[in-house]
Amino acid sequence: MINEKKDTGCSYLTRDCPKCGTVNTNSPPLAYSWKQWKLKSCSLCGFVYLENPPGYEALVSEFAWERNHGDRSIRMKQEFPLTYNFSRVWKKFRRWLIRKPNKLAKRINLYFPPGPVVDIGCGVGDYLAGLPELYQPFGIEISEDLARQASERLSDRGGKVFSTSAIEGLSEIKKESMSGIIMRSFLEHEREPLILLGGAWSALSPGGAAIIKVPNYASLNRRLMGNRWCGFRFPGHVNYFTPESLREMVESVGFQIEKFSIIDHFYLSDNMWMVARKRNKI
Ligand SMILES: [Zn+2]
After folding, report:
1. Which of 138, 251, 144, 137 is nearest to 194 (CA)?
2. What interhelical angle do 81-97 and 65-79 show, nearest 10?
3. How far is the CA of 264 from the centre of ligand 1 (A)?
4. How far does residue 157's CA lie from ligand 1's centre (Å)?
């Protein structure tokens, strides 16, 4: 259950465990919590989540993702200047040294049947604009400014961008109409992940697939870096998945896990990738 309350002009919510519904308001917050943002570990299932995320309307403007990501840099610079500078230099060096394969493009080609594809949290439509011709690009983007830019960009491909929350956007899409759904760095932001996954399942045509990329809370780096781990973003990241919890939640709405090998959730990586499919009707 989610209750909404107004606090100093900004709307905050109080969430029960988004995985199993347990009320954890009386449990102490985890040490990873920051400022007013309370991270809780569910007393029943152990799922880690932000108990008091901002309401959707605050996400549209006040905590828009593009700003929220900037906030992490400011926090790291102020609180951990050494780590911040080292990490910047290291990232530049690594980019120069290793040209990463495009994991998303590879998975789309392998697992999405031709047809319409929706990118949830599509930003300015960067990825959708480059999709191969056999896919029609659709997007959902809560930030009005980013959605407008994406719409302009994709108008010549015949797609559409819904400027709304992911759950609303999916409900506006015709049931069983999508060949593929992209949830790249998105599910960790969604305050009702099971409803969202259910909506994604409904929007997919039988045989269609969803690609999910989220930070891996079980990664070694989270244990080593603690508060400095790159997966902690307040208040943007509201769900902290482990390979087990992600698998359980995705399967619970009806998906079949198609690809989620040890390499896809390797403990040395900060992120994990999953491909889940909606079964064909028998
Ligand atoms: Zn729980």
Report:
1. 251
2. 120
3. 24
4. 42
42 CA from centroid of ligand 1 (Å): 5
Strands of the sheet with 115-120, listed across from one edge:
160-162, 135-140, 115-120, 178-184, 204-215, 271-277, 256-259
Instruction: Answer for the pair 198, 252: CB distance below 8 angstroms, yes or no.
Output: no
Average pLDDT, integer, range 125-137: 93
Run of H or E including 205: strand 204-215
Spacing, Cα 240 to ligand 1 middle (Å): 12
Give the tokens for residue 264.
């896809």
CA of 159 to the centre of ligand 1 (A): 38
3-class DSSP state of 15:
strand
Q: What is the pTM of this model?
A: 0.86
Q: Cα of 84 to ligand 1 centre, how many Å?
A: 33
Residue 1 has pLDDT above 70, yes or no: no
Ligand 1: centre distance to CA 242 (Å): 13
What's the CA gap between 242 and 248, in Å, rounded?
A: 10
What sign does the dihedral 263-266-272-278 (CA atoms) show? positive
Residue 139 phi/psi, 5° resolution? -140, 155
C-alpha 24 – ligand 1 centre gap (Å): 9
The rounded Å distance from CA 43 to ligand 1 centre is 7
Rounded to the nearest whole angstrom, what is the distance from the C-alpha of residue 239 to the centroid of ligand 1?
Answer: 11
Find all residues with CB under 8 Å of 155, minimum gap 6, and list them. Answer: none
pLDDT digits (tens, 9 = 90+) for 40-84: 999 999 999 999 998 766 666 666 655 555 566 777 777 878 777
